[in-house]
Predict the structure.
Amino acid sequence: MIKIPSQVNRALKILNGNGYSAYVVGGAVRDAFMGRDADDWDITTSALPEEILNAFNGFRVIETGIKHGTVTVIIDDMSIEITTYRVDGGYSDNRHPDSVRFTDRIEEDLMRRDFTVNAVAVSSDGEIVDPFGGRNDIENRLISCVGEPDKRFGEDALRILRALRFSSVLDFKIDEKTVKSIHDNKKLLKNVSCERIFSELCKLLCGQAVERILTDFSDVIFEIFPELEPMENCVQNNPYHVYDVWTHAVKSVAAVAPETELRLAMLFHDSGKPHTRTTDENGIDHFYNHAEISCRIAESSLATMKASKRIRERVLIYVEYHDFWPHMISKKTFRRYIAEFGMDAVKALFEVRRADSAAHAPHVYEPALKENEIGLKIIEEIEKEDSCFKIKDLAINGKDLEKSGVEPSPLMGEVLKKLFNEVIDDRIENEKEALLKRASELVKGAENGDS
Ligand code: ATP
Ligand code: MG
């Protein structure tokens, strides 16, 4: 039996008390059967949307998607989605149903669901409705479509990526017929909105079986990001590598910590290599300036996906600097990086480098870890010294400059920036008197036309 949280049980009982049938269903049920803690509980019920609202009169309720039959009820701080049993009408666009029809039969509702493991319903008194063998597939760790895969992917092509996502996150195999259908129908993904694709893709990338999915379904990934396709079979004949560019990238994705920005960065970090490959007279391959090209590819791919500003900024920093040599970087340069990118991003670069090295020839990893240690020591020192990182941390500001006679102007900004650079380069103390004195020199210099 699965353990249903008390709030969810209460919601089921309220629906039952009002004469409706109701079950928990979907991801939470799947996770609970696997012995995992589930957080997002979904309820499906015979009650119509209006009837759900009436049954939960007095509770906080959000009319999330009332047209499609979904209402969110909040019980003791827990949000529970309650949806009326539903049959989806035809799909003419491979995206959403042309219409939905409510029904009072749970079996019909389960039929519209994507995979057997997501189509098991459990009532508050422990009755299990499992018409497609979902529990068996959970037991056998298998993703399998409810019904005919070709038909189901044709209705909503996002299910292709959802299959890969669940397989990656849960480390479930995908049933053979479903696998074939995924490859056969991948072109339909072009009809799905980039937001829905990107959200599934990010979850897929952070899954535990990401290496298997990116390897076995590279064709699907290239449907989303055609710019990555040249990486496949791009050989790297040099002493540092043992894999082609795509295999290396996939292994580095799997090696890096499971955070969206890091995983995306590893996916893109060497995408510029096929465009920069040269072979010298000894037959050794080089990829000069590939990081810059990779950065441009990541930039345009993430823009196409309408990725958030935070994701874009972070991924581009990681991609551009993935090849940095931490043991060769001076404290001054690290300070500059920290000022420009932020401490978190700079620390993450070490993780990027670790994962990148882990996917090289085996002899590369240990030395890279040592070099990381050297760089990280410097970072630690900077943190301890609490050195000045941002312009606003300067011991003077625009107001101080104004008091000493500098009009608010572009010049003022330039002077502050110069002072800031001199402080992080250790050329001057971050101390008010010294800075004001230097500021007046800089202003005079500017008035005399120095640059
Ligand atoms: P997660 O752990 O990510 O919440 P989930 O299985 O709960 O996984 P949701 O996207 O929250 O996934 O969807 C809830 C349920 O709704 C699914 O378990 C599935 O039964 C059904 N579902 C969601 N999206 C689709 C879809 N595109 N096609 C068919 N059924 C779907
Ligand atoms: Mg869910």
In short: The first helix runs from residue 6 to 17. The first strand starts at residue 22 and ends at 25. The chain is about 50% helix and 10% strand.
